[in-house]
Description:
33 strands; 42 helices; nine-stranded mixed β-sheet; alpha+beta
Amino acid sequence: MADQIPLYPVRSAAAAAANRKRAAYYSAAGPRPGADRHSRYQLEDESAHLDEMPLMMSEEGFENEESDYHTLPRARIMQRKRGLEWFVCDGWKFLCTSCCGWLINICRRKKELKARTVWLGCPEKCEEKHPRNSIKNQKYNVFTFIPGVLYEQFKFFLNLYFLVISCSQFVPALKIGYLYTYWAPLGFVLAVTMTREAIDEFRRFQRDKEVNSQLYSKLTVRGKVPVKSSDIQVGDLIIVEKNQRIPSDMVFLRTSEKAGSCFIRTDQLDGETDWKLKVAVSCTQRLPALGDLFSISAYVYAQKPQMDIHSFEGTFTREDTDPPIHESLSIENTLWASTIVASGTVIGVVIYTGKETRSVMNTSDPKNKVGLLDLELNRLTKALFLALVALSIVMVTLQGYVGPWYRNLFRFLLLFSYIIPISLRVNLDMGKAVYGWMMMKDENIPGTVVRTSTIPEELGRLVYLLTDKTGTLTKNEMIFKRLHLGTVSYGADMMDEIQSHVRDSCSQMQSQAGGNNTGSTPLRKAQSSAPKVRKSVSSRIHEAVKAIVLCHNVTPVYESRAGVTGETEFAEADQDFSDENRTYQASSPDEVALVQWTESVGLTLVSRDLTSMQLKTPSGQVLSFCILQLFPFTSESKRMGVIVRDESTAEITFYMKGADVAMSIVQYNDWLEEECGNMAREGLRTLVVAKKALTEEQYQDFESRYTQAKLSMHDRSLKVAAVIESLEREMELLCLTGVEDQLQTDVRPTLEMLRNAGIKIWMLTGDKLETATCIAKSSHLVSRTQDIHIFRQVTSRGEAHLELNAFRRKHDCALVISGDSLEVCLKYYEHEFVELACQCPAVVCCRCSPTQKARIVTLLQQHTGRRTCAVGDGGNDVSMIQAADCGIGIEGKEGKQASLAADFSITQFRHIGRLLMVHGRNSYKRSAALGQFVMHRGLIISTMQAVFSSVFYFASVPLYQGFLMVGYATIYTMFPVFSLVLDQDVKPEMAMLYPELYKDLTKGRSLSFKTFLIWVLISIYQGGILMYGALVLFESEFVHVVAISFTALILTELLMVALTVRTWHWLMVVAEFLSLGCYVSSLAFLNEYFGIGRVSFGAFLDVAFITTVTFLWKVSAITVVSCLPLYVLKYLRRKLSPPSYCKLAS
């Protein structure tokens, strides 16, 4: 019978409504260019014409009919740009990846997931093998650790290059120095990386081991047996105590709570901090004792494992009764792994384990994020490599290709290998660690945590900021603000009036009930005749408040009576209900706000279980209601309902509340739509409340159809929706409620600062269009002067085509679009839509699913090539945060899931301003300066080597030996160069006061091919001066040329650091003098290194010569000639063309 329930009411009604809307839209559009074509688009299947008729790319195109056909969408042209260019650029990568993917799929073909039958307590009856219930978060195992880490390191061009260079030193013919000069820096980088990875891996292993070895009680025929979490199998009966983690996905069979239900905390699964109510299977809950689970023959039929944590379809069947008992199972009968039992002890049968659990299937491997600065430096490294090869070829050519020239070529490649410095990665990685430490230590943004230390520079390059609304821009703290009854509206300041109306109405009903001792029938007659007379305001308010206090999923929880079970005597109950420690638990803060408000006006929800609810009136009387059916809120229906029976009058009432768009089921009225719009403009979240009285016969008929629909295993949700819809007709409208979600502290100035900094802000929210629009206005995301273009609801290609053309004609206006319309636009006009949206000052996408949020981020990255940042606070924002170039999580009401998945975690939205303007700016500027300086340090010594080799008849002999080369990159220059991470161009206060300074950073001018070329020219000039100066001035002391040039080189580097610094820090001065002291003191020990070619010339350092005045003035002269022109140029540039921050500083 269940399979014969018609499906058409749901679909046909929706389709008819959509067609009516569409017709109204096109007729209302009025005559305008192209109006004669509108009829073509009223049919969805007319897409053939649209292929010939692309979207117009200009206003002129819109005005002119003919040009419509000649304008080609850019997206289609771009697709054709394949062929040789495509193959050279990306084709080979694509082909390699495809082949590798194909091989991997063949090697480990995934097992097909199937629905299953699970017998209670009989794991051996399972037809097929299921995965082990062990959690594994490790990246590597014992065998793959070293190869895996090495691959991650050597996939970077820089490290691979050094590996090849270092390995070449094992070939005697190519050896040009000590092995340690090449292997020591490379070994250091690898050792640091491997140690860090090993520590992280060991921590992951320990966490996994701790979770997998957690002990649980398993119920067997012999009684309770302890079992490890990793040894749990499908079919086992597992007992989970209060505050214990649920080890695998289970169906809830029994609980110690007499009500037959329990609460669980799901913040680790979906990021929501509200407790969820779960219901035990009634057949097993009714069994007298725990051991009886083995005396029955029963099984659970469960759908195949899937990702959706909010739905489940299954059936419970008990075979040993006549007839067999069938019970429908839904999401409320399940206990998912990684959730925590918040009340009572639960017993469940395991249905999914290990990789098939919902929590593991929803865990995506976060991508390794690489910063834009790292990619730019990688490109520069490749340019340096080409320069290195060119220089080596020039040297060999000038040598005249004598002897084994290819060997000489390789030796030159090795000699000049310092052009690409290995210390670049070491310095940058250490710099990133310092920036992260500075962010966490900043007193102005307390509680900030840096979770990804590799991308702090990204904070200084952002162009798009995508933010969630609830909990991110708003506090997720709901306050009841407005009650509207159609003829009268009550604001926050008129609540005492409502309170007196409720008190009067309750006492009146009490006296009616008191005077009516003959039974409930006369009262029911009086009630049923009431609608004919116009109701008084008091009774209407009382009806509305009663509906609000009955239609919800809120449960009162009493902290003080921890030891008392759910069922209490009435006298006891009364004293418990007056307890001060009552708190409300619900799956949404809106629900709690409504119930707290009814308590404040006199009607209090005092207790609730699965089958009943008790309310307390202002006079202290307790009203009992029996819950017959509960229809929870879903994102599709956008409403929730409950059917209750009043135990004093036996009346059955169906209450329903939901979003205004979903509540078109109420009787005709002339005020609802207008008032919903008014409240939305005030920034309130609206809910429409309605009711319908049912007779016993109507209810019995509904119940039988509903039960049948719930047992169906095919199209269950559609059949259930169809049955409920048959009940939702001609409902009496009771009231409209308005709840305010307060804005976070300083949201407005922060958004304004970000806008002034040139950052475009997109708000992506799951909330409805009206609320999203009003929050966008109240938070000043959209400024007062800007227009808002609300993108009409579109369902077909033709509608999207017209709506996009209408939007194209608007200038400088914010866009508001719903998730459904967005999906249609992206399906047909992805490129055009993104191009138009990117021109808007602000974009609001409402009714967005988590996957849509992530997709929007990816689209912006692909179409604009700009850096994106995603900000969120809940589990639904995790995918967006992980997809963005830089993810910021806020620790909020919805739990810690977003903040744990993010690259940076903050406590308040307003901290973003300082994080970007100050720390983002400094990180990028410092890393750019540090990277280029380290390259300069390598280039200058390579230039000196080139000059030296050309003077000595292009001989491939090293200028500086062994320790000098290692010392040059470490103790002699490391501290001053690394002290650049303390440099800052403007003070933090100035950066916050003038956010416009941030715009310059997004252009990437601090590190570009232009700045890089300037540094190359500086290096060539200085290297040439130092080497030629040493050779010209010291002809008589020629054997000391190494000592002279090296001393001048160290002094030049120290002076160049001083030239680069913009704001001095005392540690910089210490670093300069410390390095100079290290060099001077080491002269005494390193005399053997200061001869030219050591063996060839046999010259040693002459201490007496170094201390002469001649040596000192000549070294000083060379150093001055190499540095003075640069100081003069810097001074002139600051005077004639100062950068923007200098103007502010002065």
